[in-house]
Structures
1.
Amino acid sequence: MPNKTIYVSDDDLALYKRAQEIAGNLSQAISTALRRYVELEEGRLEGFDEITVRVGRGAGRKQRFSGVLLAEGGRSNKNGYEAFKVFRSRTGKFVLHADRRQQYSSVTTVDGEEQNHSGWRSWIGSLSSNQTWSMAQGEATLHVVDTVEDLRELIPADLYTLVEEAADQPTVEDLDI
C-alpha cells in the first residue's frame, strides 16, 4: 500500500489528534471524511442539496440524503393537515416526505377528567393551571419509490401533476446569458 504524507498546520494538530482518538485509525478517518466530502461536492455541482428531514412520531429522528426538491404541497381539513415534499434523489429515485398532523388535543384536569378539544382550542390551550395539554399529534414518514407513477396513490392529484411535470426537468439548467 502506498504511503502519502500529509502536512498538518499547528493550528489543526488538535483536530487531527481528536480524529485519531475517535476513529482509532487516522488514515481511515481521513478516507471517510474525504469520501463524504467528494460525494457532497459532486452532488452539489450536479445541482443536488443535502436534505435532512425529521421522520417518526413526535420529535422523531433525522434522516439525510442528497436530492433536489421537485414540488411541495399539502391539504387540510377540520381534523388536521398533511404536508408533502417530493424530491428526486441523486440516484434517480423519488423521495416523499409526508408530515401528517392531527389538530386534536386532550386536556386532563387535576381530578383526572379528560376533555377533548379541536379547532382553535387544540392550538391555543387553556390558561388554567390545573390542566395539562397534549398538542397536535402526528407522524412524519419518508417513502422512497422508483418511478413517478409509484407516487400517484401517495399524494394529492394536483401535487402529483406538479411532480410529473418537474420529473423530466434537468436538475440544473446552465444559462448562457
2.
Amino acid sequence: MGTEIFHQYESEVRSYCRAFPTIFKRAKGSFIEDEDGRRYLDFFAGAGALNYGHNPDFIREKLIDYLRDDGIMQALDMFTVAKGEFIKTLQEKILLPRKLDYRIQCCGPTGTNAVEAALKIARKVKGRAAIFAFQGGFHGMSLGSLACTGNQYNRMSAGTPLPNVNFMPYPFGAMEKIDTIAYMDSVLSDPNSGFDKPAAVLVETVQAEGGIVVAPEEWLKQLRALCDKHDLLLIVDDIQVGCGRTGGFFSFERAGIVPDVITLSKSISGYGLPMAIVLLKPELDKWLPGEHSGTFRGHQLAFIGGAAGIEMWTSQGLQQQVEQKSLLVENSLSNIIEELDPRLQLRGLGLIWGLDFSVIGNSDLVERVLAKCFDKGLLIENAGRKGQVMKLLPPLTISENELQQGLDIIRDSMKECFLRTAGQSYKHVVTR
C-alpha cells in the first residue's frame, strides 16, 4: 500500500503522519513496524496512550479471552461484568491504598470529554461559570477544554469566542519571577480586580504539550491551599502524565495533595483503547441521570484492558522501574548537553522528559534532529512553545537496553545536525 490513498482521500487535518511518513502495520513492546518490515523504537507511545507498550501479552490475553467468550461489546452505561471488574480493580489496587475516596464517572472515550465533564460538574456544583487555567496548558480540542488551552494555533481553530476562562502564569520561564499563588490570591480577594470568581482551577502538574514543564511540589501544595481558602475546586488533568508516567500512579502524588476532581484517559485503558474517566469526590457527584451522556461512555474492551493494566502496574513493580529508568534518561541527556551545547535545557521526571532547543535560536534545528531520529529508526515528537522541545515519552515497560538504544540515536542525530549547523566541530557549537 502506498501513501497516495491517504493524500487523496484523508482530510488535511491529519498531523502525526507528516512527521512519521511511513505506513505502519504491526507493533510489539517498544517497537512499531511499517509495512516494509522496518522496525522503529517508540519514544512516542501513542502520545502517552501506550504506557504499557504495544500489545503487552498480559493485557492481550485478557482481551482475547473476553472476545472468545462473546463478552458484551456495547452496553452504554449499563451494569456489566467488565465495568464491575475495572471499578473493583481501580478501587482496590489504586484508590484505597492511597486513601483516596472518589466516585468514578465513565464519560465519552476521549480525554477532552473527561475535561468537559469536569468543567461542567464544577460549574454545576459551585454555580459559577468562570474557570482559572494556566498559560502553556493543553486540555483538549472540544470547545470547553479548548477554552482552557493556551496554544493560540489550537484556539484559532474554534472559529468562535472561548469565554469564561482566565489564564494564570505557570511557574516557567519569565513567569517564574511571578508569585502566581500570591497573584491569584490577590485577584480573588479584591472585589475590584475585574475577575469573576471561578468555579475551579484546572491544572496539569506537568505541562506535557507545554514543553515538559514540571510544577514545583511546594507550588502545588500552595495551589491546593488557595483553592480551599477561596472555595474553588481543584481539577488535575492527569490525562497524559497519569497512569504511572511520572513515577507514582497519579502525577500529583509527589506533592502529597488530593484534588477534588481528576481527569484520566490515554493509558487508563492499558492497551491504547478509547477510554476516559473522571474521578470526583462523592460530595461533588451532583449529576442528574444522563446529564452528561454519550453512546460510548462504557467501552467494554477498554474496561478489560484497564483492569489488566492496573494489575500490570502493581504486580510488575513499574513504579520502581520508572524511577530507575528515569535516572538513565537524565544522565544520558545531561551528557549529551555537556558535549554539544550547555545552553540546552533539560526538564522532566519519571519517563517524560524534554530537551529545550529554544535558547539556541535556530528555529528548525529541533525539526531536523527529529527527522534524523526517524531516519535512524526512532519515533519521537516535539512539544512546547513554538515546538522547540524534543519530547521523550517511551513506554514505561521499555527495557534499559532499548532505552539506551534510543538515547544513543538521539545523541548521534544531534551530533550530525549540530555539526551541520556549526559547520566545523562540536566544540565550536559549545563556545560560539
3.
Amino acid sequence: MNQQVKEKLKKQLEQELREIEQQLEESERPEATELSNYDNHPADNASDLTDQLTEMAIDEHRGDDAEEIKRALQAMQDGTYGKCSVCGEDIPLGRLEAMPKALTCVEHAEQKEENLRPVEEEVISASSKSDDFEEVEAFGSSDTPSDKS
C-alpha cells in the first residue's frame, strides 16, 4: 500500500471519528413524557422506555465504532495497518477502502462475528430435558387427580 492511499484512509478515519464523537456529545437521552406514572397507560411508559433503550443502543454502537477507528489509527502509527491481525496476510485494498477500520482479512472477520453469541446460550439449552418437568412438577401443578390417571 502506498503512502498516498494510507494518508487518504487515515484522513477518512479521523473524519469519521470526529463525527462520531460529535454525535456522542450531542446525544440526549429522551426524557419521560409524563411527570407521574399514576394515570398513565402502560403503553405510554413502554414507549418512553423503548425510546430510551434505542438511544442507549445507538450510543453504544457509536462508541464501539469509535474504538474500532482508534485501533485502526493506532495500527497505522505502529506500522501494522493493512496486515491481518490474525494471520499477518495483506488485507486487500478494496476491503480497506470499503471499511478503513478493518484490521482483519475477510476470512478472519467472519470468524470474529461467529463468536458474538449471547452469553445466555451457554446456560440455557434450546431443547428441554425430560427431567426438568419432573423437577418443576414437584412444586405442584394445576392438574387434578383425574388428569393424572
4.
Amino acid sequence: MGKVTIKDVARKANVSVTTVSNVINNSGRTSPDTIRKVKQVIEELQFSPSASARNLRDKNSHLIAVVVPFLEKGRLQDNPFYWQLVLGIEEGARNHQFHVILLGVDEGESFSFVSERHLDGLIVVGTFEGSPILNQILSLDVPCVFMDSYMSDSSLYQVLLDDEMGGYLGTKHLIGLGHQRIALLSGKLQQDGVNYKRWLGYRRALEEAGLPYDPELIREEPVSTVGGYQASQYITDPRMNITAVFVFSDVGAMGLIKGLYELGVQVPRDISIVGFDDLFYTDFMIPSLTTVNQDIIERGNITVRLLLDQIVGESRQQSRKVVLPVSLKVRQSTAPIH
C-alpha cells in the first residue's frame, strides 16, 4: 500500500476529511465515539497525523472572505442582512478554526488582497453572469461559493433562495387582501439577478389573478432605508392609485414606512407593505412587518460548509447548487384594502 493519506483515514472511518482533521488538531465539535473511531483507524493504518497537520497549517491561512461586489463604501453597515449572513458564516467557520472577513468591492478592484492575505477561499454575494468581477474571481483559482448569483456554469458552487417563489408569495398575499395596484420597490432588475427572479414571481401572481402588469408601478430604488424613504413621495402620488407596496428588502420597507408616516399616510390602513428577508428587527417595528422569510443563518452555515469541503479537497454535497425555501410571515403591515 502507498502512503496513507487523510482521505484514506476518513474513508475507512466513514467520516469526513474535516472530521479527521478536527480529531488530529483537537478542534471543532466531534463526539467522543467518533474521536475513538478515528484514532483507532489512524493506528490501524499507521497514519502520521503530525505530518498531515503540519502540511495543513503551512498551506492554509484559515482565513476566508465574504465578498460583496458593487456596494458603495459604507453601505455594508447599512443593511443588517449582511450582519446576519456573516454571523451564520462565522458560526460555521469557527467550528473548523477558520476566521471570516467581510469586504465590499467594486469593478476596479484588483483582488490582490486574496494573495496578500493568503485567503483560503471566497464567498461571493450577489454577482451576475458575464460580470467582469466574476471573470477576475474565477481566474484566482481559489475555492469559491457564490450566493445570490444565478450562474449557468454547473461546475460552480452556488447557494440560492427560491427568489421567484418569494416574489410570488408576497404578491399573492396582497392580491388576496383585495389589492390590485401593487407597486414594487425592487432594486436594480439585472437580468437573471435576485431582484429579476423576484419580479418574475410578482408577474406570475398578477397573471394568475388576471390583473394587468403596469411597468409604471416598478421602481428600481436602491436597496436601503434611504431608497425606501425617498420612494414615499412617488408611492403617495394620487394619480398612481397605489394601495400596496412590495419592497424587495426589509431595510427598504423600513425607510418607506417612515417616509409614509411623515406624509400622514398610515400603514396598513392607507397602504399595505410587504418586505423581504425577515430580518431580526421586523417583528419589533410599528407596525410589525409582513415579509418573506428566509433562514439567513442557515444559509451562511450551508455556504461555509460547501467552501470548507473544497478547501480540504472533499465534496459531500452531490449537487453543487443548493436552493433554499422561503415562506411568508404575515404581521401587521398588511390589511384588506380600505
